[in-house]
Write a structure and sequence with these properties.
The complex is a heterodimer of chains A (about 325) and B (about 325). With about 325 residues, chain A is mostly helical. Chain A is built from 14 helices and two strands. In chain A, helix 8 (about 180-205) runs antiparallel to helix 12. Chain A is globular, with a radius of gyration of 23 Å. Chain B has helices at about 1-15, 30-45, 55-65, 80-85, 115-125, 135-140, 160-170, 175-180, 195-205, 215-220, 240-250, 290-305, 305-310, 320-330, and strands at about 20-25, 50-55, 70-75, 90-105, 110-115, 150-155, 190-195, 210-215, 225-230, 235, 275-280. In chain B, helix 5 crosses helix 7. The longest helix of chain B is centred in the C-terminal third of the chain and has 17 residues, at about 290-305. The model of chain B is unreliable at about 10-20 (pLDDT under 50). The chains are: A mainly alpha (about 325), B alpha/beta (about 325). Chains A and B meet through strand 1, helix 7 and helix 13 of A and helix 3, strand 7 and helix 9 of B.
């Protein structure tokens, strides 16, 4: 991919240009945009700090046990975050496992395969899907999708997969339709528009010269996508997945409708669970003791930490892939 | 007659002050529909506005303690010593009922019968099938399936949960020691729906489920409620007279500051799972005029608010209890 390198130097030349020409207007512009960027950092830091402060009572009382305990007993005032953390991670994982390949397929279809008129229609449909409020997904999930899962999908999963070794325990339990698998699928439907819209846009932006060169060298359309378009747009594609990931991790309303909001630790994906955002939304209004309120804020802080760790992990993974490719080249 | 009097008094007050009073209250979500309906009717008659925010009982208590509102409303009464410490007075304003509802094929409204210990065992996860002998014994003649019971509860903190768990604690020592009572509790089993509508939706969606829902929702959504065995030894169905019987026979005389949860009330016709919302007001208000306006509003609600309450499927307080409250006001709120 040596040809790609000179095409995007990250705007270094432009930055050098700015620094050299120190006119008053440029100076002001630099300050203004700098202040805006700084504001983001301040807001982020402020939010993290205030959640950490709000949750300090819970962290002080329960220590590390807050993260490892499955207790959530408002009467006995013992709180632990393991169940919601687990539920958040499991539903998000299911969502991303479904959404990334689907979005990739949609983007490839729209940029490489579809005739122009379908491209426009499907493209608009995806953008509309992204604009639907999450509570609508939740209600659709509960009234339409949950019965479908409980009548058709989950009995089948029980039957075919429930008795298998290793993966079996993931698919046991009564098929009530409400649970982590359903929540994960709803989340996938919700994040697909975000991921696929960005993927489509960046695939469109691949210079024709590159793709035509690939074709000229005898590449099939698939090879041109996998070997040329995808590596060229890798950073943007990963950015799109991050966007979806962030939405899935923090989604509240849709999840709380179909997840079952049960503070129980179960291996089965068909059983109800809980997520950090859902717990906070459900319980904050009636949190009637200081330690209860503090535990909920501490949960918010943990969501922050979980998101940060997941994104950091993804970035490290990306950098490693980048290095491997570099070594191969 | 009285309405005219109040109207005239309000008109006089209006003429004197030139502006209508506006007071604020906050708290219980359980009582929100009825308080906001009262407030809208009351402002049409008197011009006084009562601005009520349903921010939850817990938040209502902290707001009234902080003195940021004129009254707070809570589903869980405060103990007299806590009231004393914060200089608050407390009295009940409205009653509602909580009903067990089921979703079993072929079982309609008013067909199932439950006892308190049975409900507790189901919610503890000790009884897990609908054809368990303990259920069949009191439901002879009903065809109950050999199916797993899915327990549905509230996922949000709520006064409904407080009264439900308080009732289960009254009738089951195991529930009391293992789970306890509260607006949110650690549920031994089941799935959680957000709000009455969430529980109702889950029960409607999940076959062989059981849930607990406020009276109004059950009636409006035609859900399959069941009779509950009361402490006088009768199976009682939910009805406004049955809720009022519970309020009338509850032992208010010995409850200082009305610190009493009405579940499992002793009357022969009393429905056992009734809920009350309590209003909290300062005993020595900083602004006496606002406090007086609030009391006037509640007096109007007690005397003229029954139609509103009935339309929303709440139950107004029985007259003897209202008398008791009014003498409490005279004694406590200065």
């Amino acid at each position: 991919m040596t040809t790609a390198a000179p095409l995007h130097d990250g705007g270094a030349a432009a930055r050098r240009h700015f620094r050299r020409r120190g006119g008053a207007g440029d100076q002001a512009f630099r300050l203004l945009t700098g202040a805006m960027a700084l504001l983001i950092l301040l807001v982020l830091g402020g939010a993290a700090l205030s959640m950490a402060l709000g949750g300090r009572l819970a962290f002080a009382r329960f220590g590390a046990g807050f993260i490892t305990s499955t207790d959530w007993d408002p009467v006995g005032r013992r709180f632990g975050a393991l169940v919601p953390i687990y539920g958040t991670l499991v539903t998000t994982t299911i969502a991303i496992l479904i959404a990334v390949p689907m979005s990739f397929g949609i983007a490839v279809f729209l940029t490489e395969v579809a005739p122009r008129w379908i491209r426009g229609a499907v493209g608009s449909a995806i953008e509309l899907l992204a604009a639907i409020p999450s509570i609508i997904y939740g209600m659709w999930g509960l009234f339409v999708f949950v019965p479908f899962m409980s009548n058709h999908v989950e009995p089948w999963l029980n039957d075919k997969l429930g008795s298998l070794p290793i993966v079996g325990p993931l698919f046991t339990g009564p098929p009530i339709g409400i649970g982590m698998l359903t929540a994960g699928i709803i989340l996938a439907i919700m994040v697909i528009p975000f991921i696929s819209a960005v993927m489509r846009d960046v695939f469109m932006a691949v210079p024709d010269a590159l793709r035509e060169s690939a074709f000229a060298l005898g590449a099939t359309p698939w090879e041109s996508i996998w070997r040329v378009s995808l590596p060229y747009t890798r950073t943007a594609v990963v950015g799109a997945i991050f966007l979806g990931l962030g939405r899935a991790l923090g989604e509240t309303m849709a999840v709380t409708f179909v997840l079952g909001n049960a503070h129980e630790f179960t291996k089965s994906l068909l059983m109800p669970g809980n997520s950090i955002a859902a717990v906070i939304a459900n319980e904050f209004t009636e949190a009637d003791s200081d330690i209860y309120r503090s535990s909920l804020i501490a949960l918010g802080f943990l969501l922050f930490v979980v998101t940060f760790v997941v994104l950091l992990g993804a970035r490290i993974l990306l950098a490693r892939i980048g290095r491997q490719e570099g070594a191969r080249a | 007659m009285l309405k005219a009097l109040i109207g005239a008094a309000a008109a006089a007050a209006l003429a004197g002050a030139g502006v209508a009073a506006e007071i604020t209250g906050a708290g219980s979500t359980f009582a929100y529909p009825v308080i906001s309906q009262w407030s809208s009717d009351y402002s049409k008659i008197t011009g006084d506005h009562v601005n009520y925010q349903s921010i939850g009982s817990g938040a209502g208590i902290s707001q009234i303690k902080a003195g940021t509102v004129d009254f707070g409303a809570t589903d869980k009464p405060l103990a007299p010593d806590e009231l004393d410490k914060s200089g608050l007075a407390q009295f009940p304003v409205i009653i509602g009922g909580i009903l067990p509802v089921v979703h079993i094929n072929g079982v309609g409204a008013g067909r199932m019968r439950f006892t308190g210990p049975l409900l507790a065992a189901i919610y503890l996860g000790a009884i897990t099938k609908w054809d368990d002998p303990a259920i069949v014994k009191i439901n002879k003649g009903l065809k109950l399936p050999h199916a797993t019971i899915t327990v549905v509860h509230r996922s949000d903190g709520s006064g409904t949960t407080f009264n439900w768990s308080h009732y289960l604690g009254q009738v089951s020592p195991i529930w009391k020691s293992k789970v306890g009572e509260g607006t949110s509790i650690q549920w031994p089993t089941g799935v959680g729906g957000k709000g009455n509508e969430g529980v109702a939706a889950y029960v409607n969606q999940i076959p062989n489920s059981i849930g607990y829902v406020e009276y109004a929702y059950v009636i409006q959504n035609k859900m399959a409620w069941g009779y509950v065995f009361n402490s006088a030894g009768r199976f009682v169905g939910p009805s406004i007279p049955a809720f009022q019987a519970a309020a009338a026979t509850a032992d208010w005389a010995h409850a200082k500051d009305f610190d009493l949860v009405m579940t499992d009330a002793p009357g022969a016709g009393a429905y056992p799972i009734t809920a009350t919302t309590f209003v909290l007001m300062p005993k020595h208000p900083k602004d006496e005029a606002r406090s007086a306006t609030a009391l006037k509003f509640f007096r109007w609600a007690f005397e003229k608010g029954q139609p509103d309450a009935a339309r929303l499927d709440y139950v107004a307080l029985p007259p003897p209890l209202v008398k008791r409250i009014e003498s409490y006001w005279a004694a406590e709120i200065k």
